Amino acid sequence: MLNTLRxxxxxxxxxxxxxxxxxxxxxxxxxxxxxxxKNIIIRGRSKHVFVAHYDTIGIVLEDxxxxxxxxxxxxxxxxxxxxxxxxxxYQNREVIGVADGSKISLSVSEELPALYPMQFYPKLEMxxxxxxxxxxxxxxxxxxxxxxxxxxxxxxxxxxxxxxxTTRLEGIDRIFPDRDFISIDSTSAKNPMDERGISEIRYRxxxxxxxxxxxxxxxxxxxxxxxxxxxxxYSIHQISDATTxxxxxxxxxxxxxxxxxxxxxxxxxxxNTIQELREIIWRITQEP
Length: 288
Fold this sequence. Notes:
Elements: H1 2-9, H2 18-22, H3 25-28, E1 34-36, E2 39-42, E3 48-53, E4 58-66, E5 69-75, E6 83-90, E7 93-100, E8 103-106, E9 117-120, E10 125-126, E11 130-133, H4 136-148, E12 155-159, H5 172-175, E13 180-188, E14 202-204, H6 217-223, H7 241-247, E15 252-259, E16 267-270, H8 271-285
Parallel strand pairs: 3-12, 3-13, 13-15
Antiparallel strand pairs: 1-2, 2-12, 4-5, 4-9, 5-8, 6-7, 6-9, 7-8, 10-11, 11-16, 14-15
Helix pairs in contact: 1-4, 4-8
């Protein structure tokens, strides 16, 4: 699973760069799949459909200033940027940039297309009890779902656009009729950046402070067999793909896992949390 995560992190997936990942899917997905509105559909026989977004936050290049320098703007719920390394693939070449304030200097002097997207420089550091990497939100969920395909016959949707609020799932009920949807996404862990975060895997039945997803009671009861505590929604911004599905009239709930320093180039998660999340999802796939 960690090898898959390492490879996923290395693939730029800021909105509009989805094709770079899609071109590599045959190597990453051990079963048949289809691409629908840039969402990746894997059909199985599980009672539920598991949902995880593969897109990431990032920056886009704005005004070209010459000599490989650009003004840039952010995409998604991006935090404040200090001096950070960024990365993309352009015409099959790796391009590295160093951002400082609102300016970024690239490793190539030629002008790239306007609004070309870049992501944090990909690196994964393995410790004894935790890993640190960018884009554990939400490529960790994607990696776990793909790994579980080796053991479980699962229905899966890997979505594009969640970080931008542009996931397109209208009509998904025709692909997966009479199914409940379980979105798996990260939540900020308790740390100096967000004292209201979570410290363990939780379910989120109500999102967006009541303006987003409200999971049906029986779906909550099913999840509570595996996850005892609910994550409280404080803000209208705390939403996931479960909210998108809910707004299309579908039954959906979110499973949240804690990531420290969320939306930074050094997100952190405990290895025990990864194992527990994998075990919870696997057990849910065995629901009769």
